[in-house]
Amino acid sequence: AQSVTQLDSQVPVFEEAPVELRCNYSSSVSVYLFWYVQYPNQGLQLLLKYLSGSTLVKGINGFEAEFNKSQTSFHLRKPSVHISDTAEYFCAVRANTGGFKTIFGAGTRLFVKA
Amino acid sequence: DADVTQTPRNRITKTGKRIMLECSQTKGHDRMYWYRQDPGLGLRLIYYSFDVKDINKGEISDGYSVSRQAQAKFSLSLESAIPNQTALYFCATSRTGANYGYTFGSGTRLTVV
């Protein structure tokens, strides 16, 4: 079985500052990792995913994430945030063989202040 | 039109009533899912379907039922709604294969009074 822990429930940050949203996972098998973003009153949309290969994954809107197998982490980063990045971000994990269920973290609410 | 459409967007219903939430997709995906979102709990899987004849319970299926009427349609029913089913409900679709992400609908906000 897999589980996901998002270490911060809320992250306030000033506009143009860097941000890191932390995600740890646990699994007895190899996994695929995902970050989704949910803007207010909308569904979730895929931000980026790690399947294999390079541990640094680039996604939409300038976000990137780094897979660290030894620390079982998949932290999301952006070097300079905008007001429009205010949203809730979800880390998710799925077993990469026979995996059919995606397990979501509890979410991190990013609040970008002017 | 949206790739994954959920209706209604908002619904208030009384305890004990039967209610159906509908989901339709134009993605052509075989797999469809119903999730429930509660603050601080993330998304929890209610039911999932890999094709019209394959429906499976998720982690919180009690009190819910589903119907896959066609490849493109997957509905969720609350047979007798109770207040702790008040939540935001999402339908999602995906291609077959663990390496694909989900496409989500915009959600249905359900309030049971």
Annotate the secondary structure layout.
The complex is a heterodimer of chains A (114) and B (113).
Chain A: E1 2-6, E2 10-14, E3 19-21, E4 23-27, E5 31-38, E6 44-50, E7 56-58, E8 64-68, E9 73-78, E10 87-95, E11 103-104, E12 108-113
Parallel strand pairs in A: 2-12
Antiparallel strand pairs in A: 1-4, 3-9, 5-6, 5-10, 7-8, 8-9, 10-11, 10-12
Chain B: E1 4-7, E2 10-13, E3 19-25, E4 31-38, E5 42-51, E6 54-57, E7 64-70, E8 73-78, E9 87-94, E10 103-104, E11 108-112
Parallel strand pairs in B: 2-11
Antiparallel strand pairs in B: 1-3, 3-8, 4-5, 4-9, 5-6, 7-8, 9-10, 9-11
Structure description:
The complex is a heterodimer of chains A (114) and B (113). Chain A is mostly beta strands. Chain A contains no helices and twelve strands. Chain A has strands at 2-6, 10-14, 19-21, 23-27, 31-38, 44-50, 56-58, 64-68, 73-78, 87-95, 103-104, 108-113. In chain A, strands 2, 5, 6, 10, 11 and 12 form a six-stranded mixed β-sheet that branches. Chain A is globular. In chain B, 35% of the residues are buried.
What is the structure about, briefly put?
The complex is a heterodimer of chains A (114) and B (113). Chain A is an all-beta fold and 114 residues long.
Tag the structure with descriptive keywords:
heterodimer, A: 114 residues, six-stranded mixed β-sheet, four-stranded antiparallel β-sheet, globular, B: 113 residues, seven-stranded mixed β-sheet, 0% helix
